[in-house]
Every structure is written in structure tokens, then in C-alpha cells.
Design brief:
heterodimer, A: alpha/beta, FAD/NAD(P)-binding domain, 2 domains, five-stranded parallel β-sheet, 10 helices, B: mainly alpha, 75% helix, 0% strand, globular
Chain lengths: 434, 122
């Protein structure tokens, strides 16, 4: 008991650090009295964390949170589910359980936002007026964009798709596990759009290879990673490190290969490349579809007009996360149109920034907090080892433990953080306590 | 770069085990520590025979702590990747060793009572 307790405290220290941020200490101040109507779209990591923090900062605000999903998903756990390390239930909890009292939850999807009259309407026919709107609905996985692919294929015929949710992640493991036993050619893809946790396609590749290796089947497997451009990761120094690790593991890389279609019967994947379409046979194919903002964001005129035009992310200032045309609207998490930041660790840093600006606005001031693009990825490179990769908008590495935990080394301590402390830190963040 | 408050660490630890279990563990470790201090004050000396057994239990505690951590995290010694991992491993072993030694010493003192202090070397 003693051993466990003391170890866990140590591990939690490390985990808390990985997601720690400077605003936490200042959160406990006298609440500001207000009648403001605040609508938060989305009760995922960002929406829930913000709601829990706002109720501590504001007294009398009418906070409404709109989300149709009863289940809250701990998405950082999906990679572990898809490698057979955790059951599907590991990532699932109840949305309502995380929300503070005094907040109204409308279990409905948003149909449209009218930023001129400041009104949100839902698919169920409700209309909600707001003074301030925070958009945190997450993103949409566009599976239909992959020709010949449908989600019911996941888990059969060597097809995996771990992003699609806990049950699909579990089915992904069924297909991947078969591949680690029987061997063959494993093809691991990623989309050409912005995506949540760009490390996850790499993690899945490393994990499935490691599991085959442990089973003594590495001689039977061939691993191909299909990169969407000429890099393996958007941060150059990380991309180089991953390139070296791929060489060490004997992975082949197909650069500038974007999955276009799947023939599940013949087990052939077709890629769009600079040299036209290229076919590749496979025994295991991991599909990650293009990712876009929800339709209502684009239809409501909230997206960037000249950037990511096929994806529709919300047009926000990259440092304040405030809408560039509608100053009473903010965006958080996956839907925010910023260059990086589609991870839970980014949300951890973004939420206090929006909280600061929103509370300041209500108080008749201007906020001063700024988001520098912090994004973090415990990049698993084997069961038992990971690299703690943390970076910002400028592709700088911003290690939480400089000189102690080397960011580009495969370390056991980083794995311990990922497997033990990260979910606890995430949960503490949801409650507005970290 | 970042600030990590005590409150944050407590919050994370509570989430890790559940609030009840976490504080129960804190309570148990506090009770063991108090019991240890109690027997030290009561006996007014360290009983070296009991201390010997406690010392002998240390390697067991060290190995048990490491094995436990590896078991709950699907990892093994081959995952040690750098100096910080060695330091962490030794730290876990040290905590296990000292923890079990305190438990063994305290348990002996409480079970056998003060009389066995005569066995000791002052």
C-alpha cells in the first residue's frame, strides 16, 4: 500500500506537470456578479473544463451547455484500446457526471448559430440566446470521404479505424491482433487535413509492430507508414526523430500518400500521390479519415474564408482564441482554426485563456492571457516506452521538465505518465482543478 | 515554465484512485507513521533485533514495489531508456524498501510489545 501510494504520488506529480499551466493558481478569486448568458457548444474536454472553471469565477451567470452525446470520451485512451491494452470502457464516462450544478445541459445537437442576432438553434427546435458563445463541439470524422470504406468494416478483413470511438477502437484491435499473429503487410495511414493528435497514427504503428515483435512475429510482418506529405510529423525535429526510429524498426515510409479508396474484398488501398493514383495491397490497413469542423460551423459563416477551406475551422485569433469577426464568440479545442492544438493537452492550456478573456469582458476589461500553441503528445514507441513531445506554434520544443525528462528520448517514465497519470490529470482538468 | 500547485497534485491523486481510496491510503500511511513514532517513543530506543528483521525485509519491499509498478503499467526492466528511468526505478525500490521496513518494525513492536526491548542492544 505504502509503495503504491508513494509511487503514484510521484507519477501524478509527473503527469500533472505534463499538463500543468500557469493560470491554475490564479483561478481562486472572488467571483464576479453577472447576469451574462453564456452558451457553450460541446461538453467534451474543452466545454466541460471551461464550464467547471466559469462557475468558480462568475456568480449569477446563466451557463448553458449544448451537447447531444450522453457519453463523455477520454479520447487519449483510444490508442491504448486499439492496442488491446485497455478495454473500450476505459475511455467512456457520462457527460452529465462531469458538469457542475447550476449549469443547464441541453442534450441536443446544434443546427445553426446566428452570430448577428446572437442565437443558437438546436436540431430539436430549441432556440437559445447568448451574450457570449464558446464553440467547442469537436470535429467530424469524414469517413464517407474514403471511397469503398464504411465503419461496419472495422474489425474485419484487416481493417482498423481507432478514431471512430471506443467500440471501433476495440474492433480495430481485433483486426490488428490478427495481423500481429499471422503477419503480412500492415499499412498505416493519416489524412491530409488537420487532425486531432497527429501522433496517434504513429503510436498505433509503433504499438502494433511492438506487439508483433513480442510475439516473435516481426519476421512475418512488413510495416508501411503512409505519410500525407513529405514529413512524419509537423514539427521538424520530431519528424527527424521519428524517421530515425522508423529506420531502427525497419518500417518503410510512403511519403505524400493520401488514402483515397479501399477495396476491402481484394485488400487493396488506393492512394492519391503526386504521381497520380497508386495502389497498395495490405493485410492490415489502419484508416484515419479526413477531419472537418461540424457542418453548422461552416453554414453559420464562422469559418475561415481563406484557410482550411475544405475543413471549416473557426476563424479565431491564434493567441486569444477569440473570433476575428464576432468578438463575443470564442472557440476551443479541435474546432478552433489555429495551426496546432488539437489535443487534450492543448485544451488544458487553451481553456484558461478563454476563461481569462471571457471573465475580463464580463468585468468590463480586456483579457491578457495568451495561448502560444502548446501541444503535447506522449508518443508511445513501444509498450513500456514513450517520448514526451511538447511543442508550440513556432515548432519549438517546450519541455515541462527540461534537463530531467528528455523530450526526444524513448523513456519508461514517459510511458508511466501516459498509462497511469494522464487520465487522472485529464479528469482533474475536466473538473476545473488542474 | 509551468507552475504546479499542491492543490493540483491532490486533485490528480484523487482522480487516480477515487477520492475515498486516496484519502483512505493517506490515512493508513499516516497511522503507520504515527504507530512507528509511537513505538520509538514508547521504547525510547531502536530495538536492533527488530531492526535487523526490518532491514532484511527491505530487499523484499524494493523488489515488490518495482514488480508492482511494472505489473500495473504493462512494462518491464527492458523499458529502462535513460538516466531518469534508472533514478525513478531506484526511487521506487527505495520507497518500497523503506516502506516495508517501517511496517515490519512497527508491526513487531506492536505485536511483541515493549518487553522484547530487552533483547536489543542499547
Amino acid at each position: 500500500m505504502m509503495d503504491r501510494r508513494q509511487f503514484m504520488t510521484l507519477a501524478s506529480l509527473a503527469g500533472a506537470g505534463a499538463l500543468a499551466n500557469p493560470q491554475v493558481a490564479g483561478a481562486r478569486v472572488t467571483p464576479i456578479a453577472t447576469q451574462a448568458r453564456i452558451v457553450i457548444v460541446g461538453a467534451g474536454a474543452a466545454g466541460t473544463a471551461l464550464a467547471n472553471r466559469l462557475v468558480q469565477r462568475l456568480d449569477g451567470a446563466k451557463i448553458t451547455i449544448i451537447d447531444p452525446r450522453r457519453e463523455h470520451l477520454y479520447q487519449p485512451g483510444l490508442s491504448l484500446v486499439a492496442a488491446g491494452l485497455k478495454p473500450a470502457g476505459y475511455v467512456v464516462s457520462s457527460t452529465a457526471d462531469w458538469l457542475p450544478s447550476g449549469v443547464t445541459l441541453i442534450p441536443d445537437a446544434v443546427a445553426a448559430v446566428d452570430p448577428e442576432t446572437r442565437k443558437v438553434s438546436t436540431t430539436g427546435g430549441q432556440s437559445v440566446d447568448y451574450d457570449f458563445l464558446v464553440l467547442a463541439p469537436g470535429l467530424v470524422l469524414d469517413h464517407d470521404a474514403i471511397e469503398g470504406f464504411s465503419l461496419d468494416m472495422v474489425g474485419t478483413n484487416g481493417i482498423g479505424a481507432l478514431y471512430a470511438g471506443p467500440n471501433y477502437a476495440a474492433r480495430t484491435w481485433t483486426a490488428a491482433a490478427a495481423f500481429t499473429e499471422t503477419g503480412g503487410k500492415g499499412v498505416f495511414t493519416r489524412p491530409a487535413t488537420e487532425m486531432k493528435c497527429a501522433g496517434a497514427p504513429l503510436k498505433h504503428t509503433f504499438l502494433i509492430d511492438d506487439i508483433a515483435r513480442r510475439a516473435g512475429n516481426s519476421g512475418k510482418t512488413e510495416i508501411v507508414y503512409a505519410a500525407h506529405n513529405d514529413a512524419l510529423f509537423s514539427v521538424p525535429i520530431v519528424s527527424e526523430k521519428v524517421r530515425m526510429l522508423f529506420a531502427d524498426r525497419g518500417f518503410a515510409t510512403a511519403y505524400s500518400h493520401v488514402l483515397k479508396s479501399v477495396d476491402a474484398e481484394k485488400k487493396i488501398a488506393t492512394f492519391t500521390t503526386p504521381n497520380g493514383e497508386q495502389e497498395m495491397d495490405y493485410d492490415y490497413l489502419h484508416v484515419i479519415p479526413p477531419q472537418r469542423a461540424p457542418e453548422f460551423i461552416r453554414q453559420s459563416g464562422l469559418s475561415w474564408a481563406d484557410r482550411w477551406t475544405d475543413q471549416g475551422w473557426v476563424e479565431v485569433d491564434m493567441h486569444s482564441l477569440r473570433h476575428r469577426r464576432y468578438p463575443d464568440i470564442f472557440a476551443l479545442g479541435d474546432v478552433a482554426g489555429v495551426p496546432k492544438g488539437k489535443t487534450a493537452a492543448s485544451v488544458k492550456f487553451q481553456v484558461p485563456v478563454v476563461e481569462d478573456h471571457l471573465v475580463a469582458l464580463i468585468d468590463g476589461r480586456e483579457g491578457s492571457a495568451s495561448y502560444a500553441g502548446y501541444t503535447s503528445c506522449p508518443m508511445i514507441t513501444a509498450i513500456g516506452r514513450a517520448m514526451l513531445v511538447e511543442f508550440d506554434y513556432d515548432n519549438n520544443l517546450v519541455p515541462s521538465f527540461p534537463g530531467v525528462i528528455a523530450p526526444l528520448e524513448e523513456l519508461w517514465i514517459t510511458w508511466l505518465m501516459k498509462s497511469v497519470a494522464l487520465k487522472a490529470t485529464y479528469n482533474a482538468m475536466l473538473r476545473g482543478r488542474a | 515554465m509551468e507552475e504546479m500547485t499542491f492543490g493540483t497534485m491532490i486533485a490528480v491523486a484523487e482522480e487516480m484512485f477515487g477520492r475515498g481510496l486516496f484519502w483512505a491510503m493517506v490515512a493508513v500511511s499516516a497511522i503507520v507513521t504515527l504507530a512507528y513514532i509511537y513505538v520509538l517513543i514508547r521504547d525510547r530506543s531502536v530495538n536492533w533485533r527488530k531492526f535487523l528483521l526490518a532491514q532484511l525485509s527491505m530487499p523484499v519491499g524494493a523488489v515488490a514495489a518495482v514488480v508492482f509498478v511494472q505489473a500495473v503499467t504493462d512494462s518491464s526492466l527492458r523499458d529502462i531508456g535513460g538516466p531518469i528511468d534508472v533514478i525513478l526505478l531506484l526511487g521506487i525500490a527505495l520507497v518500497g524498501a523503506i516502506g516495508l521496513a517501517i511496517v515490519v518494525y512497527t508491526a513487531q513492536s506492536l505485536i511483541r510489545g515493549k518487553s522484547s526491548v530487552k533483547d536489543g542492544v542499547r
